[in-house]
Write a structure and sequence with these properties.
Rhopdopsin 7-helix transmembrane proteins; 3 domains; 5-stranded mixed β-sheet; alpha+beta; Heat Shock Protein 90
Length: 478
C-alpha cells in the first residue's frame, strides 16, 4: 500500500498544480510567465492522470485479463509523451518568450520528429512487450529530461524579470520550482524502468531502490510536491501585479488630477488677468476717445455760448464741428461695443457674425478668410453661438500671430447630431504634443479652445506638423 500512497500523492501534486494553473491562465499580465502557463496546466493535469492510471493498474492486477488491456501499454506511453510535450512547451515559452511563436513551433516540431524517429527505431528493433517498456524509457529520456531542464532554466530566467518588476518574493518561489523540476527531470526521470535503452540497463529504478532503499517514485513524488507548492505559491504574483497596476493607475490619476488642478488654477489666474487687461483697455479707450471727445464737446459748447450773441455765423460753424465730433464718438463707441460682443451674434446668428468678423479681419490685418458652410443652419443656443464664435476668433488670432500666411479657411458643418467648425491654414505648423505639454510654457490660446469646447460638451481636435499647416476642428453635439 506504500507505493499506492506514493502514486496517489505523486498524481495529486501535479493534478492540483495543473488545476490551479488552469484557473489562472485567463489573467491579463505583461509577464511571459503568465503567457506560458497553459502548457504547464496541461502537463500537470495529464501527467497527474497518468500516475493515477499507474496506481489503478497496481490496485487492480486482474485488469490484465480485460480485453482492453492490450491498448493500455500504448495509451500509457502516449499519455506520458503528451504530458512531457506540454512540459517542453512550457520551458520553451519561458525561454524564447511568448512573442516568438514561430521559433516555439519550430523547436516543438523538431523535438517531435526526433522522438517519433527514435520511437520507430525502438519498436523496429525490439519485441513488442519489451518495446513498450523501452518506449516508456525512451520517452522519459527524450522528452521528460529536456522538458524539465528547459523548464528549470526558464523559471530561473523569470526570476530576473520578477526582480525587475519588484516581486522578489515570487522570484524565490520560481527558483524553488526550478530546482524541483531540475531534480525531477535530471534524477527522477534518469532512473527509469530497466530496459535495453542505455543507460537504463544500468541506471534504473531497481538500482535506485538498491542504493537508497526507497522507490524512485517516492523521489519523483517529493519533487512533484515541492514543484507544485512553489508554482501555486508563485501564482499569487498575479494578485500582486494587479495591485501594482491599480496603484500605478491611482498614482497616474492623482498626478493627472493635480496637473489639471494646476492648469485650472493657472487658467483662472489668466482669466482674471485677461479680465483686468480688458477692463484697462476699455478704460483707456473710453478715456482716450470718449473722454477727450466729451471734453472737446464741452469746450465747443462753451465757445458757442460765448459767441452766440456776437457771432451767429461762428456759432453755426462750431455747431457743425460738434456734430462731427459726436458722429466720431458714436462710431468709436460702436466699435468698442462690437469688440466686446458683436450684436450680429444675437440679432442674426452665428453665420452672420462670422461673415462680419471675416471681413473685419481682412480689413484690419490683411488676412483673407475663405468662409463656407454646409448643411441647414440651425438656431443654436446662445452659449454654443458664443463659444464657437470665440473659438474661431482665437483660431484666426493664432493664424495672424504665428502662421505667417495671408489666407485661412473657416468651415461650418451642420449635421443631424450637432455642429462642427473647422479652421484651416497652410502656415508653419507646429508639434501639437510638444506645444500643449511644454513645461513652463503652455499655449494658453489652444488650451482655451479645448476649455471652451468642453464647456458646451464638445470636443476639440488639433492636427498640425511643422511646415504642414494646422487644422482645428471643434464638434459640439446638440
Amino acid at each position: 500500500m506504500d507505493i499506492i500512497t506514493v502514486y496517489f500523492l505523486y498524481g495529486l501534486s501535479f493534478f492540483s498544480m495543473g488545476l490551479a494553473v488552469m484557473l489562472e491562465v485567463d489573467r491579463s499580465s505583461k509577464l511571459d510567465f503568465a503567457r506560458a502557463l497553459m502548457p504547464l496546466a496541461g502537463f500537470g493535469l495529464i501527467h497527474g492522470s497518468h500516475e493515477w492510471a499507474e496506481m489503478f493498474l497496481i490496485l487492480h492486477p486482474d485488469f490484465q485479463n480485460n480485453p482492453l488491456y492490450d491498448i493500455v501499454g500504448p495509451v500509457r506511453v502516449l499519455l506520458l509523451a503528451i504530458s512531457f510535450f506540454f512540459l517542453l512547451s512550457f520551458g520553451i515559452k519561458l525561454i524564447v518568450g511568448s512573442s516568438r511563436s514561430l521559433l516555439h513551433r519550430q523547436m516543438m516540431f523538431t523535438i517531435g520528429v526526433i522522438w517519433l524517429v527514435g520511437l520507430g527505431w525502438v519498436f523496429a528493433t525490439h519485441p513488442y512487450a519489451i518495446a513498450l517498456v523501452a518506449a516508456d524509457v525512451y520517452t522519459r529520456y527524450a522528452l521528460a529530461i529536456p522538458g524539465a531542464a528547459l523548464s528549470a532554466w526558464g523559471l530561473v530566467l523569470q526570476q530576473r524579470k520578477f526582480f525587475q518588476a519588484g516581486m522578489k518574493g515570487f522570484g524565490r518561489d520560481v527558483v524553488i520550482a526550478a530546482v524541483a523540476f531540475g531534480l525531477y527531470g535530471g534524477v527522477g526521470q534518469l532512473f527509469a524502468p530497466p530496459s535495453p535503452i542505455f543507460p537504463s540497463n544500468y541506471l534504473n529504478s531497481q538500482f535506485f531502490m538498491d542504493c537508497f532503499g526507497c522507490p524512485i517514485q517516492l523521489f519523483r513524488s517529493v519533487m512533484a510536491c515541492i514543484a507544485a507548492v512553489a508554482i501555486i505559491s508563485s501564482l499569487r504574483l498575479f494578485e500582486q501585479e494587479t495591485r501594482n497596476q491599480i496603484e500605478s493607475l491611482r498614482e497616474a490619476q492623482l498626478e493627472e488630477r493635480s496637473r489639471l488642478e494646476e492648469l485650472r488654477a493657472e487658467l483662472l489666474r489668466r482669466t482674471v488677468r485677461a479680465q483686468e487687461s480688458e477692463r484697462q483697455r476699455i478704460a483707456r479707450e473710453v478715456h482716450d476717445e470718449i473722454g477727450q471727445l466729451l471734453t472737446a464737446i464741452g469746450l465747443g459748447l462753451r465757445a458757442i455760448s460765448g459767441s452766440a450773441s456776437t457771432s451767429p455765423g461762428r456759432v453755426k460753424e462750431q455747431a457743425s464741428q460738434l456734430q462731427g465730433l459726436v458722429s466720431s464718438g458714436f462710431s468709436g463707441l460702436q466699435n468698442l461695443i462690437i469688440g466686446l460682443h458683436p450684436p450680429q451674434l444675437d440679432d442674426f446668428g452665428l453665420m452672420a457674425a462670422l461673415r462680419w468678423y471675416s471681413g473685419e479681419v481682412q480689413e484690419r490685418y490683411g488676412l483673407s478668410v475663405e468662409f463656407s458652410a454646409e448643411g441647414e443652419e440651425k438656431d443654436l443656443p446662445t452659449e454654443v453661438r458664443v463659444v464657437l464664435f470665440r473659438i474661431i476668433q482665437e483660431g484666426l488670432t493664432n493664424i495672424i500671430r504665428h502662421a505667417r500666411v495671408n489666407q485661412a479657411k473657416v468651415q461650418v458643418f451642420y449635421t443631424g447630431q450637432g455642429v462642427s467648425v473647422r479652421i484651416l491654414d497652410k502656415g508653419h505648423g507646429f508639434d501639437v504634443d510638444t506645444t500643449l505639454h511644454e513645461p513652463g510654457h503652455p499655449c494658453w490660446g489652444l488650451l482655451g479652445i479645448f476649455e471652451r469646447a468642453a464647456l458646451v460638451g464638445g470636443e476639440c481636435q488639433i492636427s498640425s506638423r511643422p511646415g504642414q499647416g494646422t487644422i482645428i476642428e471643434v464638434t459640439v453635439p446638440l
